[in-house]
C-alpha cells in the first residue's frame, strides 16, 4: 500500500506544478509575442553582461558558438571563453580564427579560488572577446576563473556546445529589469538542436531530431522546462538553472563563494547556495525562469554517451541533496525548505528505489496470490496514463505559447514519442540514476566520456 500512496502523492504533486505552469502560460505568451525587449536592444538602461563559456576539448563546436554569441541583439556585453586545459585544438582554433594575441599583465578583479591561469588572449578588432587559458580544473573552476576576470555586474553561463537565439539575452534582461533589486538568477529554456539546420552560428530551420535518443530527450526537456520550471519559478522554488544558459547577479554569486569545484551538479549547487544565502540573511529575492529565452544544445545521440550523462546527473543530484538536506521541512527556508527540497529528495533522488521496490512488491503479491494480476496491469496502466498526460500537458504549453515545431507531423511525432518513452527509455532512466548513486558511493568523480559533433559535419569525434 505504501507504494500506491507514494505514486498517488507524487502524481498529484506533478500535476500541481503543471497547473502553476498553466497559470502563467498566457502571460508568457503575450510576453513572447510582444514585449518591451525589442525597444531595449539599443537602450543604455540595459545592464552589460559577461558571457562565460567554459571549454574543454570543444574544437568542433567552439567557433560556431563564439560567432553566435558575438552577434546577439544586445547593446553591451563581453564573451569570455575559458579553455580548461583542453588536450585537443580548442585554443589553437580560437587563436587562429579570431587572431587573438597574448595580453600582458591581465587584471583579475575577483578573488574566487581557481586553477592557475596560463594566459589571456585578446584582439582589439574583437574588443569584447577574451580567451582565458588555464590548467584543467573542471567546469565550475572555469566559471570561477571567468567571474574573476569579468568586467560587468551580470554574468551568464553558456555551454560551448550551445547556440543562443539572437534575442535570448535581451529577453533575459527584460525579465531582470522587472525587479533588478531582488533578481539574483534567471534560467533560460534549453531545446535540442539535433536535426536543426545551423548556419553561421544560428538555428535557421527548426526540426525535430532524426535519431531516437535525441528525440526522447526533446520530449523530456519540454516536460522538464515548460511543464516543471515555469511552475517552480512562479513559487520561487526553482532548484536549478541549467548550466547551458543562465544569467546571474555577479555580486550574489561571489557572496556565496562562486561555483562548487570538483563535482558534477554545479548548476544545481549554485542555485541552492543562492537560496540558502538569501533566506538565511533575510533578503528579498527571486530566482526566475524565462522560457522565451532559448538556447539550442547538442544532445547525446548514443546509448553510451547519454548513460554517462545521466549517471553524472544522478551523482550531482545525490551530492547536492546530502549536502543540503538540513534545509528540508524548516520554515525559515520557505518554499525551498517546505516543498522543493522534500520534493527533490523523496521524488527525485529516492524515486528509483520506490519504483523498483514497489514493482517487486506488486509482482510478489501476484505470485503469492495475495492480489490478482489484473491489479498489477491496472496499476501499470494508470501509472503510464498519468505520465503520458504530464508529457501531453507540456506539449500543449508549447503549442499555446511558442509553436517552435509548426509541422503537424512534428506534433504527431512528439505525441508518439511521449508514449514510447515509457517503453524502455523511462526504465533506463531509473537504472542510470541508480548507477550514478553507486558511482557516488564509490567516490567516482569522473565526468564521463562525451562527444561533440560539428554543427555542420555529421562526423563525430571524441571529447572528454
UniProtKB/TrEMBL annotation:
Domain of life: Bacteria
Keywords: Glycosyltransferase, Membrane, Transferase, Transmembrane, Transmembrane helix
Entry keyword annotation includes ATP-binding: no
CDD domains linked: CESA_like
Name used for this protein in its record: Glycosyltransferase family 2 protein
Protein family per UniProt: Belongs to the glycosyltransferase 2 family.
Pfam families: Glyco_trans_2_3, Glycos_transf_2
Domain Glycosyltransferase 2-like: from-to ranges: 50-94, 157-378
Transmembrane segments: 6-22, 345-367, 373-397
Keyword hit for Glycosyltransferase: yes
Range of residues in the leader sequence: none
Amino acid at each position: 500500500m505504501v507504494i500506491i500512496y507514494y505514486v498517488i502523492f507524487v502524481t498529484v504533486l506533478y500535476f500541481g506544478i503543471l497547473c502553476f505552469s498553466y497559470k502563467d502560460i498566457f502571460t508568457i505568451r503575450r510576453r513572447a509575442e510582444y514585449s518591451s525587449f525589442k525597444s531595449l536592444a539599443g537602450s543604455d538602461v540595459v545592464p552589460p553582461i559577461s558571457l562565460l563559456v567554459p571549454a574543454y576539448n570543444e574544437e568542433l563546436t567552439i567557433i560556431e558558438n563564439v560567432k553566435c554569441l558575438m552577434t546577439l541583439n544586445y547593446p553591451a556585453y563581453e564573451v569570455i571563453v575559458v579553455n580548461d586545459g583542453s588536450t585537443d585544438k580548442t585554443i589553437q582554433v580560437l587563436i587562429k580564427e579570431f587572431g587573438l594575441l597574448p595580453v600582458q599583465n591581465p587584471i583579475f578583479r575577483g578573488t574566487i579560488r581557481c586553477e592557475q591561469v596560463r594566459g589571456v588572449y585578446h584582439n582589439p578588432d574583437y574588443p569584447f572577446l577574451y580567451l582565458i587559458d588555464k590548467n584543467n580544473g573542471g567546469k565550475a573552476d572555469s566559471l570561477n576563473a571567468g567571474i574573476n576576470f569579468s568586467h560587468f555586474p551580470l554574468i551568464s553561463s553558456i555551454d560551448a556546445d550551445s547556440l543562443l537565439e539572437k534575442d535570448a539575452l535581451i529577453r533575459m534582461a527584460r525579465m531582470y529589469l522587472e525587479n533588478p533589486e531582488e533578481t539574483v538568477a534567471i534560467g533560460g529554456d534549453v531545446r535540442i538542436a539535433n536535426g536543426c539546420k545551423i548556419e553561421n552560428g544560428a538555428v535557421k530551420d527548426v526540426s525535430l531530431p532524426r535519431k531516437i535518443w535525441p528525440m526522447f530527450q526533446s520530449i523530456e526537456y519540454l516536460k522538464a522546462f515548460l511543464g516543471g520550471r515555469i511552475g517552480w519559478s512562479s513559487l520561487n522554488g526553482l532548484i536549478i538553472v541549467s548550466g547551458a544558459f543562465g544569467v546571474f547577479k555577479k555580486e550574489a554569486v561571489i557572496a556565496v563563494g562562486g561555483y562548487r569545484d570538483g563535482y558534477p551538479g554545479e548548476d544545481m549547487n549554485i542555485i541552492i547556495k543562492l537560496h540558502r544565502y538569501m533566506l538565511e540573511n533575510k533578503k528579498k529575492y527571486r530566482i526566475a525562469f524565462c522560457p522565451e529565452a532559448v538556447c539550442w544544445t547538442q544532445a547525446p545521440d548514443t546509448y553510451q554517451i547519454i548513460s554517462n550523462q545521466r549517471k553524472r546527473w544522478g551523482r550531482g543530484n545525490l551530492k547536492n541533496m546530502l549536502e543540503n538536506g538540513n534545509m528540508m521541512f524548516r520554515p525559515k527556508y520557505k518554499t525551498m525548505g517546505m516543498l522543493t527540497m522534500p520534493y527533490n529528495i523523496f521524488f527525485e533522488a529516492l524515486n528509483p528505489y520506490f519504483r523498483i521496490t514497489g514493482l517487486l512488491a506488486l509482482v510478489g503479491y501476484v505470485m503469492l496470490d495475495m492480489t490478482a494480476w489484473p491489479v498489477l496491469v491496472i496499476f501499470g496502466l494508470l501509472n503510464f496514463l498519468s505520465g503520458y498526460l504530464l508529457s501531453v500537458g507540456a506539449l500543449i504549453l508549447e503549442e499555446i505559447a511558442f509553436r517552435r515545431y509548426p509541422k503537424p507531423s512534428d506534433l504527431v511525432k512528439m505525441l508518439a514519442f511521449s508514449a514510447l518513452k515509457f517503453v524502455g527509455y523511462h526504465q533506463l532512466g531509473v537504472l542510470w540514476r541508480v548507477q550514478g548513486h553507486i558511482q557516488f558511493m564509490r567516490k567516482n568523480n569522473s565526468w564521463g566520456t562525451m562527444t561533440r559533433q560539428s554543427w555542420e559535419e555529421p562526423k563525430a569525434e571524441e571529447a572528454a
